[in-house]
Structure formats: C-alpha cells, structure tokens
From TrEMBL:
Name of the protein described by the UniProt record: allantoinase
Cofactor dependency: Zn(2+)
UniProt KW Zinc keyword: yes
Amidohydrolase-related domain ranges (all copies): 54-421
Length: 434
C-alpha cells in the first residue's frame, strides 16, 4: 500500500506563506504533508499540474440555497454543483429564503432533511434571528449553526422580518451567553425609499450609502455595548469603511465582508433594463468600487463571498423597481475576482486569503481554508491565464440569470477535489454537513 493516496504537485501552490512550488500529499481525505515540488513520494496517484495554480478549496459563507420551499429558485443539488465548478468546496447556507426559514431547531432539521444526499460540497448552516425567536437561539447554536443572521431593514420575504435595534440588543445578550456570532444585513430603513421610477439610477438613489453607514454604526455600537462578535454582511458602500476601521482600532469585535459584484461591476456599467444587476444593497459607482478595493487591501474588509441569491427569471421582471434583488454568481466568484484583482496588483495569495482562509476563520470552520497538514484535502486546480466566456445557460445555477452573462472573465477552474477525490457532478454527491 502506498504511503499516500494522492499527491498533487504545482509550481504555483498557494500556501499560507504565499505562492511556491509544492507537492500536497493526501492520506484518508486529509492533507498529510506539504513537500517540495519535486520530492520523490510514494502515492497511489500523482498529479502534476505544472504551471496551473493549486489553491485550497474556497469557503463561501454567504449562500442562499432556498431549499426547501423555494427550490424552484435554487436547491442544494444545483447550488453545490455550481460551487464545485467554481472551486468552492464549502458553503454556509443562509437562513432565508427557504420555507421555513432556519429560525428554529425544527426548521434546521427540515432543511437538513431536504439537503440530505444532494450536496456535492460540504455544507454548514446559519441560523436566523427574527422578532420572537430569542428562545430558539441557544437550541440552534447547540445544533451547530455557525451564527445568526438578522436584518435591520425589510428582508424582502415576509417570513423573515427585521429586528429593531433594541431587538438586536436583546438577541445579542442571548448570543453572548455562548460567545456566538451575529451577522447583520446593515441598512437603516429610515433612509430607504421607494424607487421613484423603473430605471437603475432611480433604484440606486432609493438605497443610499448613508443607509448602510448608519446601520453599520448602529451595529458597531451594539457590539461595543454587549461584547458580542458582529459581522457586517455584503458591504457595498465605501462610506462604511471609516467607522469599521475606527471600530477595529478601538478593539470592537466587528468584521465585514464584501462581494464579487461590488468589486467587479459598477453602476455606470449597468445596461438599461438589465435587472440581473439588481441586488440589495446595490452596485454603486466606479469610484466607490475603487475605495472598496482599498478597504480590502488594508484589511478593513476581510472576506469576499458571493451572497448568491438567485430567483426564477420571471421574478427579475419587469424593471428595477419591482424585480427581485439578488445576484446569481456562486460559480463565477473566483474568476470574477481574479479578473479584477490581477489588474490591481493583487496575487492569488490575496484571493485565497479573502475567499478561503478568512471566511473559514470567520465562521470557525475547522479543517478548511488552507493548504496545511491536517486540513481537509479540498483542492482546486486553477488556470489563472485562461479566458472564461460566461454563458448563463451553461452554468450549474438552476436559473440562467447572471449579470456576468456575455462577459469574458480571466481564470478557469480545471479540477476541484473534495477530501482528496475529484468532484464529479454527474456522480453521486459526497458532501457532508459541517
């Protein structure tokens, strides 16, 4: 019997120390060792990627799978196939827009039963904090959710209502008892408006950056008062960076993420009437995008995750005032970010930090996020030089709607391994619940 089941070699292996030639050796689904690229090793299978990059599997902590209840929007089979095709080997599912939402232990059971046997990558779950479910937070924590999502403004679905600041404070007091994590959709409803008309500029004006900043300031203050870890979801407005940076300097336990669409798309680029670009909070100006990149570079924003929130095509009609607000991009996050990051002087090590190591650390997902001994052998062969023309109909997402349709991105995933075995989306799925 060979010492290792698998060795994957690359001249561009992205390790926590940076890019270097290496050979990653796998035993029983784990990374057993990281050797020199040309080391003589005893393995059942030896794969040499040459100049293709070897990355750890990405960790996407912001995915709306929607099953059960809205599986016609997206489901675990289609979402996790898309994830694997995009180099994502771990997702954490948001508590909405499934029916029921994951706000009780019974609802978590229903979601896991619906997902069972369908997952091509590993899956974890967030719980939800809504009015009236304080007594459900600890049971959900004990069942293994990674934290709790709340909204400060309407969520878009009536079964997941927002919390007032006082209700957030009460939830944080409960979460403090077990040192949990609250993740916050931060927009202040008092500054949100109904769009004045059907166009994108009118929609953008209805959700100003000031709404995000004020809500972020509220969340920071609640974290300061309670001592509970708070994470700000999908930061779209660079106006949030100043209070976030000040909070970090002051020792407040707050962190923040942004998403590929805020880093790669701009309001100026949105085609007339193309509601595939609609999301909440919205895609903003090119100048704002540049400032978000600066916030990512200096660590104020720590994670880049998809906020994959798809729907059926009919719900993206008829215009920006009425369409469902969500971006479908789970399969495309890595090439989208690499396309932009490379032009801004960032390397693959930066991308791996933002899209794998830091999201894993945020949620406390053990054994994910790095090419290190003892971690799960979740690996990605990535061709950073390849052109990737995007055809929405060819993606694994259930509905062919994405703002990247027709674009050519840079970088392509060639192989994704889950615990040392290549993911085959035509074979039975092997993902597990985390």
């Amino acid at each position: 019997m060979s010492e290792y089941e698998l060795v994957v070699r690359s001249r561009v292996a992205v390790t926590p120390e940076g890019e270097r030639p290496a050979a990653v050796a796998v035993r029983e689904g784990k990374i057993a060792a990281v050797h020199a690229y040309d080391a003589a090793l005893d393995a059942g299978q030896d794969v040499d990627l040459g100049d293709l990059a070897l990355l750890p599997g990405l960790v996407d902590t912001h995915v709306h799978v929607n099953e059960p209840g809205r599986t016609h929007w997206e489901g675990f089979a289609s979402a996790t196939r898309a994830a694997a095709a995009g180099g994502v080997t771990t997702i954490v599912d948001m508590p909405l827009n499934s029916l029921p939402p994951t706000v009780t232990a019974a609802a978590l059971t229903a979601k896991q039963e619906a997902a069972a046997g369908q997952c091509y990558v590993d899956v974890g779950f967030w719980g939800g904090a809504i009015p009236g479910n304080l007594d459900d937070l600890r049971p959900l924590h004990e069942r293994g959710v990674y934290g709790f999502k709340c909204f400060l403004s309407p969520s878009g679905v009536e079964e997941f209502p927002p919390l007032t600041p006082d209700e957030v404070r009460q939830a944080l007091k409960v979460i403090a008892e077990f040192d949990g994590l609250m993740v916050v959709h931060a927009e202040d409803p008092s500054l949100l408006l109904e769009p004045a008309g059907p166009t994108y500029p009118e929609f953008l004006d209805s959700r100003p950056g000031a709404s995000e900043r004020r809500a972020v300031e509220q969340a920071i203050e609640l974290s300061r008062q309670t001592g509970v870890r708070v994470h700000i979801l999908h930061v779209s407005s660079a106006d949030c960076l100043e209070p976030l940076a000040a909070a970090r300097r002051g020792g407040v336990r707050v962190s923040a993420e942004t998403c590929p669409h805020y880093l790669t798309l701009t309001a100026e680029q949105v085609p007339d009437g193309d509601t595939a670009f609609k999301c909440c909070p919205p895609i903003r100006s090119a100048e704002n995008r540049d400032r978000l990149w600066a916030g990512l570079a200096d660590g104020v924003l720590s994670c880049v995750v998809s906020d994959h929130s798809p729907s059926t095509a009919d719900l993206k009609l008829p215009d920006f005032a009425a369409a469902w607000g969500g971006i479908a991009s789970l399969q495309l996050g890595l090439p989208a970010i690499w396309t932009e990051a490379a032009t801004r002087g960032h390397g693959l090590a930066d991308v791996v930090r933002w899209m794998s190591a830091n999201p894993a650390a945020l949620a406390g997902i053990r054994g994910k996020g790095g090419l290190v001994p003892g971690a799960d052998a979740d690996l990605v062969a990535f061709d950073p030089a390849a052109d990737l023309p995007v055809d929405a109909a060819a993606l694994h997402h259930k509905n062919p709607v994405t703002p990247y349709h027709g674009r050519t991105l840079k970088g392509a995933v060639r192989t994704t391994w889950l615990r040392g075995v290549p993911v085959d989306v035509t074979a039975p799925p092997r993902g597990v619940f985390l």
